[in-house]
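Hello forum,

I keep getting stuck at the same step: I have a sequence, I want structure tokens, and every attempt I make locally crashes halfway through. Rather than fight my setup again tonight, could one of you with a working pipeline run this one for me? It's a single chain of 86 residues.
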Amino acid sequence: MQQVAGSWEAWKSQLAQAVQLGQSMNLSQEELAKRAEQVGDFLASKIDPKNPEQKVLKELWEAADDEEQRTIANVLIKLVSGTKVH
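Reply #2:
Ran it on my machine without issues. Output:
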């Protein structure tokens, strides 16, 4: 399994790569969001945040109910959809 990037920009690039991979596999927006929710649950429960932005995301994720987590997942996908990957 790939490690979680330490900087915010590297993390966004890593997430953009995952979104692009899902899109290349013809996953729908709903399927991408469902996968993002699964990753969010894993990260929130198993991975220590590497920067202040990830800490905020973890706190938001933990405070959110299922519907709100789905919204966060969709917003993150939207955030990185235009991101160039390195």
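Helices lie at 8-24, 29-46, 52-63, 66-80. If your local run keeps crashing, start a new thread with the error log.
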